[in-house]
Every structure is written in C-alpha cells, then in structure tokens.
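User: Show me a protein chain along with its predicted structure.
Assistant: Here is one chain, sequence first, then structure tokens.
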Amino acid sequence: MFSVPRQRKWWQRPSAGVDVLVENRAERGSANEREDSHPDLAGGDPEELFTRLFDTHAAALRSYFAGRVGGHVADDLVAETFLLALRKRGTYDPCRGPVRPWLYGIATNVLRGHTRKELRGLRATARMVGDAGTAVEAVEVRVAERVDAQQRTRRLAASLARLSRLDRDVLLLSAWAELTPTEIGQALDMPAGTVRSRLYRARRALRKALALQEREAGRGGRR
C-alpha cells in the first residue's frame, strides 16, 4: 500500500522564482529545455512510481500551495494531491503530455476545495497589512522573492481576490508554478489559446486594479 512520504527537512521552501505577474512573458522552453517524464503510471510498482514522482515534484508543489493558501496547510494539500493522483493514475495518458501538468491539474482541483478559505485569507491580508513598505509600481509589479500568504501586500492580495477563480488559477499557474500556456491547458483541460486569452485578461485586470489602488493611495496621502 503506497503512502505519501513524510515531510522532509529539505522541504525548506525554495525561492519561488516568481516573475512579474502582469507582464506578458513569452512561452518558455522547447521540449528539450523543459523535458518532463512521461511515466506509465498504470503499470509497474505503484509505490516505486509514486515515490519517484513525489521526490521529483513534491517540493515545487508545496511551494505553489504555500503561495496560494499558506505554508501551514501546504503539506496537507501536497499529501492530498499525491493520494488523489494515486487513485486517478489510470486517467493519466503519457501520449497526451508530461506528468507535471497532470499533477498541477489535480493540485488545482484540490485548491478549489479551499477556495473560500483562500479568498478569506487574501481579503484578511488586504485588511491587515499596512501600506508602509508595500508600495508597488502600477505597471511593473514584482512580487517579493518568497511569496507566501504572510508576504502578500495589501494591494496585490486585494487585486488577486477580485479575479475570477479560473483567471486566478491560470495566472498563478503561470507565475508561481511556471507552467507554459500549453501545460496550463493540459492541467485545466482547456485549449492553449484560451489560456493565453485568460492570461492576457487577468494581467490586464490586475494592472488596472493595482493602478487604481495606487492612485487612490496617492490621493489619500495628499489629504
């Protein structure tokens, strides 16, 4: 019986490598540059397969979860993702794409079970975090290197909370999980063209929201 490995000491969250949320980045990497395994999950020893899968992807998944809902629940969500992946291993088709987007598709569904909590966290952060030291540029917004639930600025948190659930998923799978539009499409079961349209729309909405909050903050500071 396969069981999710216990949390390891090397699970210190790495630098999130988060690029600019609102910039339109080119699709990254060729097949060789971003090579991902295409394991046969339906055959072989499940424990051996999923232990290897866990060793390869768990740290990145934990980093993604920590950025979305906080490190305090990230470990549980990683465990839930791999347990669901084990149960659903027959649905993975190596011919359709690498295993990484498939895992993030499961991870996104796990997150959707926590949507209300995530939105509450974003809004609470927006209320609690003061403006001091959190000024952001309206066009070139950079998220702190180690983005997590405690480090979100008030303005960014409020703006992310205003996006639709699907637009937020697409945007953060791109920025935080560093999936390409093609990989996001595989994860969320939608065409890559639709992903690109949603990315454009989400970035534009985020730019507008941040610019509006910046102007309002400026007017407040002049009073």
